[in-house]
Structure formats: C-alpha cells, structure tokens
C-alpha cells in the first residue's frame, strides 16, 4: 500500500505532510523520523519489517545501534497512544521486527462529518488567544441552574465607555446594582463605581485618591466591602449602602481588617452574614482565609482562620456551601468541588494545562469558559454559546435574580523592550531603552542570546472582525534596525519558554504540552523534535549547540535521561530510573530555566534568603508570581510590585547588593499575561515584556427565555 498524505489508523488520523496526528479530537506534532518509520510500516502493511530494513530506510549510511530502532518504536507508540501489551497499532514480532496491525482507512471528509452530525471542536481563542495568541484562558463560573432547553441571551447594552479599565464586576443580591472598579487613564489607581439598572446610570461611590478594588456585597445587600490600597498599606474596608444610591458616596467607611499591599486583589466572597472568605499569602503560598464577623452597628472581624490545606488561585462558594476551587499542581490546573462543611468531601471536576491561572466568579451548576467565544457548559460538557468577544474578557458576573450576564471586555497593549545596562561605582545605570517592535501587534515572551546580540519574541496580531490571530516568532539582531519573522506558530502550540542555543543559531521552544520545537534562524522552519511525553525536566543545550539534553517521565512514572542529536535528527534514551535533575542554590543559578521542575521553588528559596534584609517576603513572593527573574552569571534582575507600581532591581551575588534600576510603570489589572524577562550571560543586556495599557468596557446580555 502506498503512503497517503492522510490516513486513519483505527481512530487516529495521521497527516504525513504537516507532521501531525489527531488523537481524541486533538492535533499534536510528531517528529519527522517517527512518521518516516510509520510510513515504512504502512507501505508493508501486514508484513513484518526487520530492524535492518528500518535502519537502512531511516538512517541510510549513518551507523546507529540496534537500540536506536527500539527507542524510535517506543517514541512512536507513545505518540500514537499505543500500548505495548496488547498492541493496537504496532506489534513486535520476536527476533524479526515490527508489524503494522491497525485498521487502515481514509479519514472522514467534511461531508462525512456533517452527515454524522459530529460536534464541531471550537478552536481555543480566549483571553490568551488575544493577549498571547496561542494560550487559552479559562474563566470559570458556576451559575444558577437553568433546566430544560438551553438559555438564550441577547446583547442588551454597553454600560461604560470611559478611557481606562473596568473590572471586578459584582451584582448585588437583589440584582439591581452592579458594582465594579474603574481605573484612571494612567492605570495606577481604581475608583469604586456602581451601575444602577433601574435608572441606567453609573454612580461614582469612592474616589479617594487611593485605589478601591474588588467590591463584594453582604448577603443582605446592606454593606459593600472592598480592598483599599495606599502607598504603604492595604485594608479591607466597608461602607453602608442601605439608603438611596445618590448618598452612598457620602457614607462613612471604616476598616474591617488589614490585607497584604503587595499582592493583587482576589475576589472576596461574603458567604454568610458572619463569614467572609478571601485568599492570603501564608508560608510562601496562597491560602484560603475565613474572616469570622461580628454583626451590629458596625461589622467587625472577630477571628481569622486558614481553611484546609488548599493553595487556591481562585475560589467561590455557593449558597449551599459547595466550594469551587482552582489549584496548580505541577504543570496542571485542577478544578475541584469541595463541601465547605466537610472539607474531606472533595471532587475533582477537571485537570487541564493552562498557562494562565483561571479566573471565575459566582457559581451554581454551570461553567463559563472563553474559547473563541464566551460559552456556558454543564458539568457534563454540554456547551452553549453566548458571545464572541472582540478582545479579552477581564471579569464576568451573573445577575442572581434574572440570570443576565455582565462582562468586562477589552484590549491590552503589550510590548517588548530591551535595556542596555552599565555598572559603575555608583550603581547600575540604563544606557539605552529600545522597544523591539511597533505597537501595532502584541509582543511577549522575549528571550536574549547568551552574548546579548539577538533577541527573539512572540508577536500576536490584534483581534479583528475575522477573529483570526497570527502568532509568530521574530528575531532581532543588535546590529539591525528591524526584526525578522522566522516562524509562524500553529494554533495548537501554547509556548512555555524560548531559549537560544549557545551559538545563537537555533531557537528552542517548549510548549505547555511538553513538546519541544527547534527554529533555525537561517532556514526559518519550525521543526518538532521531542513529543509524546507527559512531563519533561531540565531541557538544556550542550555547550557545542549540537545536542539537547532532557529528562522525561515514562508511562510507568519513572524519570529517564534522554538526548536529541541535531545532526542525526533523533532522540536516544541514555538511562532509566534516574533522579530528577535539580539545581540547588549552591549551583550556578543562571543555568536554570523554566523547564526545571523545581524552577519556581528554587528561585523563591534563593531570593527569599538573599533579600530578607532588603524586601519583605509578603511583597517579594507575589511579585515573583507576576514576573520571573532574569538570571545571569553575576546575579539576577527581578521586578517588585508595590501597589500598582512596578520597579526593576538587580541582586548582585558576589557583593550581596540589591540595586534599584528604574520604575517600569503601572500594572493596574492582572489579566494573566505571561510576563517574562531574559538577560545576557554577562548581565549587560536585559529584555522584558510589559503591559502598557488596558482598555475595557462593560457589556450586558439579557436572558430571553
């Protein structure tokens, strides 16, 4: 049988042209040598193909060991999800070779799919698809159950149109008022505002010159609590709202309790009159906090308690005490339902790999998600579309009375910059600041070569009416005025980090699905080289730029040492059952990269010890969650978040100096963008991504059935 461009093996579709396979309705990349082997087996379908035939066909005159064939077959089986016992696609013929035993057919055509009424798989394109092109963002929200036929919505109105950002939407218990925070044009503070649906009017409630964020209503609607940030502290404040809305701005406010000024506000949940919940940083990690309230003329905090062992990125609680909680566990984001009254009753709803931490609001029995449109789905996976956004969605809430939906939608301006730095007797100064590309696109994830002469970054086309976004990799040389495009990323690739080879000729891309791609700056081709593993560790270049070393976790759960040879274009297994490679603070930290499983932990531990005399940990650790430091031979650059102000510092290892470099502007709203920095080995060149502006408006959608 001659090899076709596309074939179906059992229920797996193989595309030999684009080097991809489709398994369980998802396209994944496969390296070319694996498909060359599959092509050979397909041509001799039903026959046993010997190891010698495979070596002759795939390696030609290059001398390889018999083990290379075994490892290639193992990799292909992993890519095809084919178990060795019993095999469904490739069978081992003892002492002879291998045989293709799968049922081979032609993939269904579009007509066939339409005739079978198979559901269309929506392309992931949400907050991250717009902000970072290929990274999907989950907005999760349980809503009040709508039984019977799917609920229909109609666009109703736009509530705001002022410059700046509207976010942190919260409906009042009676559904009349929508509270939110509204930033000024400089994005450095938020004011508290309320939209009255009865009069169709926005009222400014608090405009103190400080920043009032993330409002929450008491269960009886008589109080409004919110975070208030000033340059030195953070409070959870409260005002009474049991009179006419026109007088709310005159209502006295008082402090309920103090909060952490360095971390971004998370949504509070006023679950019962005497129980307020929030997220705090405790022992270097996020924890769920319960504030027990005493009621009277004034509401006061009577007690504080950490709830369970949860490490929540986001949470919410239904009126029945069912808690929805999102935690990051390794490379996975886990969404669980927990009984607040019996914490041992925990049910995992989903585990998915997301680059951004999920955000969600009030809930009951539905999940709201952003793919290429805003959708509502049941826990059984039945989806219903609501809205196709023109940009990312910053916040969402549902009216508890009539089910109407309000969301804040807008655009972010993200640019990449390069700093040329000089260290003198009086500290470190910035010689030159350069924006790497025009602001017509969004540029993020910049990385710089070891010698500082080249910078690579990912560029994303702003969303338009067609909803089409092109994610591309660009490289800019120091001696050239403009950057050059070297690759366009398929929509299924979600980048995790970029890294230049030591000689600067090749760029390595690791994605969120633990696949590795190479882009040669001369040939400008995106080539998949490592795939089929659930988890990788310590992906790194050899000094001569000819080999990529990495560790991979096998299906049996043990770690293995592997390497990819660029000249042979092949992977080879070097050792089984090895200890996961880790870099301790005693080793050269500048060799660390985000592929290490202890990357974030090592940085936190090292910087916490090094900077304990310079920076409070309550300020440092949330800042590290926003920006990862840029490492170089002599130290590291890092960014501190002080309220909404970002400041760049350099920690010098030898002298143990902590040097302020410059302010980098404001970061008013956490929209989940992957903000990164990268430094040349000598520390004289630094690149970073920055959110230069966010514009959102609030839109309303009305239930029509």
Shape category: globular
Tell how many strands the DSSP assignment holds: 51
Uncertain regions spanning at least 5 consecutive residues: 109-149, 355-364, 464-468
Rg from alpha-carbon coordinates:
27 Å
**How much β-strand is present in the residues?**
over 45%
Instruction: Write down the overall mean pLDDT.
Output: 81
> CA-to-CA gap between the ends?
56 Å
How many helical stretches? 7
Percent helix range? under 10%
Largest sheet: 6 strands, antiparallel
Indicate the structural class.
mainly beta
Describe this structure in words.
This protein is mainly beta. The strands form 13 sheets. Strands 10, 31, 32, 33, 50 and 51 form a six-stranded antiparallel beta sheet that branches. Strands 4-3-2-1-8 form a five-stranded antiparallel beta sheet, with no helix packed on it. A hairpin with a 5-residue loop joins strand 34 (441-448) and strand 35. It is globular and about 85 Å long. It starts with 5 loop residues before the first strand and ends with a strand. Mean pLDDT is 81; it is low at 109-149, 355-364 and 464-468.
Brief characterization of the structure:
This protein is mainly beta and 705 residues long.
